[in-house]
């Protein structure tokens, strides 16, 4: 398989494309169902997110007269495309090594903010005051949760690189864990692991960090004026982003496959990977969302600056000292 064919396959089918869209909608359904059970509600069926997408695809798209139509239509497509490309770069232990030459932490740092940029473009182009408020909130929160992410990436790179220097290749980071054990169980990396776990609800805007789209305050903010297929694309973007950040957490902390040899190892390792993503979803998003309210914008920003970023910096400092 040539590099171009491999990249197209990865973006359209697996591990991006059809696979990540299906898995994302399923994880969204599990999240909603478990949150409902924790709150003593029956909750929707697991396939409800897919039904919501189908319903929105049958509706009419309404665009405000004063909106910038080109930017308004481009925003959800930009976000979804960026996440599909990112999903194609995510390696899966024992299943997929990622697109050759592109599994780099620096590349991920450029790609992961694309959904937030899509939301900001949506809010800014909609001509709605609530969209503008959502734009500013999303931008502030992005600056806040990117800081612990960058520090965590550096801590992992330094810890894995050792005396030879920092190692930014995600497949190489996974290979290190195959040989030396998961970084999740490395005492030096525990603060950075906690920072990464807190990054996930921050970037997804769940629980305490449901700030840019807070319904009682800014009425969905950037998404207020969206309807029909364009809103469906935003929901698909959110589903794919959920899978991407969960897979990133698995790849950096516990990518080790369950089976290393044997013909059926790929399927077993894929199911094992999905199970790890599901456990991380429960820990970082579902229980978090069910048990917490919402912070103010200044509180959410301060949380990542004062508490989460220092956790990652502790691991970064220890990794430097113990190289």
UniProtKB/TrEMBL annotation:
Keywords: Membrane, Transmembrane, Transmembrane helix. It is found in: Membrane. It is a multi-pass membrane protein. It holds the Pfam family NADHdh. GO terms for cellular component: plasma membrane. The chain crosses the membrane at residues 6-27, 77-99, 105-122, 143-168, 188-209, 230-254, 266-291, 303-322. This is NADH-quinone oxidoreductase subunit H. It comes from Humidesulfovibrio mexicanus. The lineage of its organism: Bacteria, Pseudomonadati, Thermodesulfobacteriota, Desulfovibrionia, Desulfovibrionales.
